[in-house]
Each structure stands twice: as structure tokens, then as C-alpha cells.
Write a structure and sequence with these properties.
alpha/beta, Rossmann fold, globular, HAD family phosphatase, HAD-SF_hydro_IIB, about 35% helix
Length: about 290
């Protein structure tokens, strides 16, 4: 006998009225979760987020994207001034960005060189993106430049990434086909010295050990005096995994990675409308 399909209505039916009344903090991944398939923020979602803030809640976008990229998406929702950016390497509070940790330049040079040589030897359409708190640097142009610019709007092209002298909070690796090969051939050799995080099919991030969205969320919860029972998290990919351990109320979208589906308390059938339905329920519960 087949099980009934999961719908937004069925998810809400599983939530007892008032179950979300104590929520104070709502944290959501962006690409593949809160954003539409065209990677934009629907105006209706922005309106609901503004209602959450007006109701006294804190809403925090959490993404592998740079802070500037997230801020562009929320340009029409100016009440949002707190972000978890760069997969936890940057925490923005009240518009002020700070790095949670940095990478040693010698390590960055070694990683960049390995990524460069792998792309050349294997004919990969891939590159490294060296990221600071506010800026990022690449050696490429064309399609790779365009893809990097989607997530790092303050992007500069340089002759050699080794020439970057700013503090480095992350090295992002983009492959226009899939990062699976570079994960297997290169990043596995750096995993004992740094945090390696898959951010989607085409992106992997390398940050200092222990830097995750989950760690940034714990830091933020401590600053706000908010606990897991007062936190809602939405997500879909492996870079969201640690966040799910910090929230009693966790929601994964249907296409989420199996490990995310395993730990999520609730599953949503799609992006946008089901996420909006949960936000509406939060608003109903906190105002009851």
C-alpha cells in the first residue's frame, strides 16, 4: 500500500497548533530552499520574512554565498541585517561582518595550486575562488567568472591567486559540471587540515577546521539568548547538516540530500510555497 504524498497541507497537519509559538529565531538556507528555481527571492517570501521581523522574531539567511550576494537578494527586505555567510566563515550582525576564522596563506597557496593543476591535467571546467570577508578573487573569465559572480558580487580578476594578501576566510571551488572529481582527487587530501563542505552540485568550500553554518548558528544563538527549542531551520544540502542539530524545529525540502532528510524533523514537498506555508504557521502561532 503506497503512502500518501507529502504536501504543504499534510506537513502543517502534522504540526500541532501552537507548536511553533515559542519560536524566536528562523534560519533558512537560500539556494534550493528559500529561493525560487531561478535563484531569486519571491516578493511574497520577502513580505513574509518582513512580517516575522515585525512580530519580534529574528530571521537569518544562511548560505555558502558571500554576504554581499545575500544582501542583494534581500535588498527589498531592509529589516534583514543578520546573515550567516560563506558557510559560516562570516557572521553578519546588524550589518557588521566579521570573520569567524581565517586560513593560513601557505595553506591557501597549496590548495589553489592543487586545484589549478587538477583542472589543467583533467581538462576540468573548474577553478578556485579565494574569498575575503567582503571581496573575492579569481584567475578566470568566461563561464567560470559568470558562475562565481552569482555568489560573490565583489569579485576581482587577478593574474595569480597567490598574490592576494588580504585575510582569507574561504577558498571556494567551482566546477561547471560537478565537484565530484575534485572532491575525490584533491579535496580529500586537505580534509584533515580544513573543513571541506559540499555546497551543491557545482560548489565546494574549504574553510578553517570547525567552521560550519551550524557553528555560526550556535554562536548567534548564544548572543541572542535563544535555544534549539526556539529555533526553526530550513535546508537541503550537506552544508546545512550541522544547523539541523541546533534546531528542534527542522524542515528539509523534498530534494534534500539523504543525510539531511534523515535528520530533519519535517519534510516539505517543494521550495517556495511549502516554506511560505510554514512561515505563515509560525506567524499564526506566535501571535495566538
Amino acid at each position: 500500500m503506497s503512502s500518501s504524498p507529502v504536501t504543504a497541507a499534510s506537513v502543517l497537519d502534522d504540526l500541532a497548533r501552537g507548536a511553533l509559538a515559542g519560536v524566536k529565531l528562523v534560519v533558512s538556507d537560500l539556494d534550493g530552499t528559500l529561493l525560487a528555481p531561478d535563484r531569486t527571492l519571491p516578493a511574497s517570501t520577502g513580505g513574509l520574512v518582513a512580517e516575522l521581523v515585525a512580530a519580534g522574531l529574528t530571521f537569518v539567511p544562511a548560505s555558502g554565498r558571500a554576504h554581499a550576494s545575500q544582501a542583494e537578494l534581500f535588498a527589498d527586505v531592509p529589516v534583514i541585517d543578520t546573515y550567516i555567510a560563506d558557510n559560516g566563515a562570516v557572521l553578519v550582525e546588524h550589518g557588521e561582518a566579521r570573520a569567524t576564522a581565517t586560513l593560513d596563506h601557505a595553506f591557501v597557496h597549496e590548495l589553489v595550486d592543487a586545484v589549478r593543476h587538477h583542472a589543467q591535467a583533467e581538462g576540468r571546467r573548474s577553478t578556485a575562488v579565494v574569498c575575503g570577508t567582503e571581496e573575492a578573487w579569481v584567475e578566470v573569465d568566461g563561464e567560470l567568472w559568470d558562475e562565481a559572480l552569482n555568489y560573490h558580487p565583489h569579485l576581482t580578476r587577478v593574474s595569480r591567486l597567490e598574490d592576494v594578501t588580504d585575510d582569507v576566510i574561504k577558498v571556494a571551488i567551482v566546477d561547471l559540471d560537478s565537484t565530484e572529481a575534485i572532491d575525490r582527487d584533491v579535496l580529500v587530501h586537505f580534509a584533515e587540515r580544513a573543513q571541506v563542505t559540499r555546497s551543491g552540485t557545482h560548489w565546494a568550500d574549504v574553510t578553517a577546521l570547525g567552521v560550519t553554518k551550524g557553528q555560526a548558528l550556535r554562536d548567534l544563538q548564544a548572543r541572542l539568548g535563544v535555544g534549539p527549542d526556539e529555533t526553526v531551520v530550513f535546508g537541503d544540502h550537506m552544508n546545512d547538516l550541522e544547523m539541523f542539530g541546533e534546531a528542534t524545529h527542522s524542515f528539509a525540502v523534498a530534494h534534500a540530500q539523504p543525510a539531511i532528510l534523515d535528520v530533519a524533523r519535517h519534510r516539505l514537498p517543494d521550495v517556495v510555497e511549502p516554506v511560505q506555508a510554514v512561515i505563515r504557521r509560525i506567524l499564526e502561532d506566535v501571535s495566538a
